[in-house]
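Tokenise the fold.
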Amino acid sequence: MTVLIILLAVILLLWFGIKKYWAKPQKLGQAYTIDDEYNSKKVEIQNEIDHILSKMGKKGIDDLSEKDKRRLDELSKQLK
């Protein structure tokens, strides 16, 4: 009887241990940890900065609208 109880306990421990590894991954766009969330946000900011800078073209900063200039300033402050 004792062997049966121990065997049942081992099976339950294995079941819950394996279930942990086979858990469904989170939906796309959700961060797994705080570090992932921070890095994801940083990448989004950098991508937006790159997009605004690509608008500058050959003429430089004079090509940007006031809205783009303000947004670029805000984003660059967030990266610091």
Remarks:
- Residues 11 and 17 are 10 Å apart (CA to CA).
